[in-house]
Amino acid sequence: MALPAISCQCLTFGRTACLEEALEFFLRQDYPGPKELVIVNDLPAQRIVFDHAEVRIVNAAARFPTIGEKRNAAIRHCSGDVIVCWDDDDGFLPGHLSACAHYIEGYDYARPNRCFVWADNSRIERTSGSYIAQHVFTREVFERVGGYARMNSGQDMDLDNRLRRVARCNWPEIDAREITYLFRWANGEYHLSGFGRDRPGVTSGYSRIGEWVSCAVAEGRVPSGEVRLVPQFRQDYGCMVRRFVEEHSPISGVQESRDIDVRSRGEAAFGMQLRRGGGGTRELEELVTGSALPWTEWTISRALAMELVASLERRQPRRILELGSGASTAILAAHARARGGAVLSLEHDRRYHRRTEQLLAELGLERFVRVLLAPIADRTCADGQARPWYSVVLDGTFDFVFADGPPMSVGRDATLFALWPYLESDWELWLDDANRRHERACIELWQRYFPVSGEVRQVDDRGLAILRRSDRPSQVDLEGTGPNSAAGISHDGLPSSSTH
After folding, report:
1. What are the residue ranges spanned by the domains of the chain?
2. Is 102 exposed, middle or buried (0-12, 13-18, 19+ CB in 10 A)?
3. How far apart, in whole angstroms, are the C-alpha atoms of residue 379 and residue 385?
4. What digits encode the pLDDT tens for the residues 2-54?
5. Which end of the chain is flanked by fewer CB atoms within 10 Å, N or C?
6. pLDDT range class, residue 120, cuts 50, 70, 90
7. Spatial separation of the C-alpha atoms in residues 305 and 327, rounded to whole Å
8. Where on the phi/psi map is residue 161: left (φ > 0), alpha (ψ -120 to 50), or beta?
């Protein structure tokens, strides 16, 4: 039987170093059948050049309006019957195309259930459930569903949902020895998915990236003019893979908790959206009221979880930061899946980090949140005092913070000192356990240094403090007994003058 012709669609925009690695990954493929790499560059300041019989480069005269339209253009230039996603910021081991040809044989759409994750710039951190960029599909089924939608973040998930409805699907279960895809987060480049989905009236991540790259070109940080690619690796990925496999042998036991059966996960991860047309609120409510989440004395209460679901639906936050992971992480990830947005969760305890990632994988939510292991270290605050805080360098700003950590044994005093430069003007911070003396003392401390307003709500016996930026001197109602107890609070729980 003749091997199928495979075309790899590769989009690029000002990420030359990543692109040269993506090119090297392609040139090392062992696939014996016909293959090609189609690179679409729509940075007008660059003209990318590389001469190879299996590499086609399209330099567009102007930037495409959306990523979806850019992907459609790339596939129009593809000649193969099988299409593989070849994102320039990810990695593909030498057997990737051979594996794709095997997965798609007899099917229209396929995606294996595991991948490697490279998140700390020095090693492969773990294996994870399937990432959308691993998918492979036939040109016929792609054209049958009408291609990618005209959208930015989420265009791949949108296509995935439509393909699942009509395609003959294959969800191969593989172990670590068979993984060929490397999700690369720690490559020092921008990631569109980190900005969340586009929102009316808000500058899109796609536009912000365009502005950043234009500035980088003007400053000489991104090359302009004719750019001749030099295929090369800047990391020894082969060594990383071998080391990971050796450290986690026997292979069948590697991170067993993350061995996800994609076929059984399909209903949890995608079924509710298909049945309800993406009804985010009902999906989140069922997650909270059902048995999927662990409810213990160490997790947030169901009552607080329901308050969180209602607030997320009302506010539609764009970038969410969570302090301390657990059941709330799954709720935030489910919201991001249903409504868009980016979620970063900080966890200092390796055991809880592992448990949270296991929970997310079981629910099919691991792609919608980044759970970062961040040990605790002293941080000098604005008042000159050293206080314990997560060892992390934050990137970008956040409009919603859910703080259920660090634990009281560590202390939460540093929270607002550390986060103040990273808060949007319309930020809101939820502080759990607000009935404890420690949290009350933290609020009083922050009031001395920052313009903060808000109230404490008795949603459960632990109490919830909701803090916001204030144009007036700091004022937090610490005596509130219900959701509308503080002065100036309307029936929706927001300040009456709020513009959220």
Report:
1. 6-253, 275-477
2. middle
3. 8
4. 899 999 999 999 999 999 999 999 999 999 999 999 999 999 999 999 999 99
5. N
6. low
7. 9
8. alpha
Q: What percent of the chain has pLDDT over 70?
A: 84
- For CA atoms 27, 28, 29, 31, the dihedral sign is positive
Q: Which residue has the tokens 């939820």?
A: 430
pLDDT band at residue 196 using 50, 70 and 90 as cut-offs: low
The CATH class given to the 275-477 domain equals: alpha beta
pTM over 0.70: no
- What is the rounded radius of gyration, in angstroms, for the C-alpha atoms of the chain? 24
pLDDT, residue 186, reads 58
Looking up tokens 């395609």, which residue turns up? 167
User: Distance between CA atoms of 23 and 20, rounded to whole angstroms?
Assistant: 5
Q: For residue range 445-478, what is the model confidence (pLDDT) as tens digits?
A: 999 999 998 888 888 878 899 999 987 554 444 4
HEC string of the chain equals: CCCCCEEEEEEECCCHHHHHHHHHHHHCCCCCCCEEEEEEECCCCEEEECCCCCEEEEECCCCCCCHHHHHHHHHHCCCCCEEEECCCCCEECCCHHHHHHHHHCCCCEECCCCEEEECCCCCCCEEECCCHHHCEEEHHHHHHCCCCCCCCCCHHHHHHHHHHHHCCEECCCCCHHHCCEEEECCCCCCCHHHHCCCCCCCCCHHHHHHHHHHHHHHCCCCCCEEEECCCCCCCCHHHHHHHHHHHCCCHHHCCHHHCCCHHHHHHHHHHHHHHHCCCHHHHHHHHHHCCCCCCCCCCCCHHHHHHHHHHHHHHCCCEEEEECCCHHHHHHHHHHHHHCCEEEEEECCHHHHHHHHHHHHHCCCHHHCEEEECCEEEEECCCCCEEEEECCCCCCCEEEEEECCCCCCCCCCCHHHHHHHHEEEEEEEEEECCCCHHHHHHHHHHHCCCCEEEEEECCCCCCEEEEEECCCCCEEECCCCCCCCCCCECCCCCECCCCC
Domain 6-253, second-level architecture:
Alpha-Beta Complex (3.90)
The whole-angstrom separation of Cα 339 and Cα 153 is 11
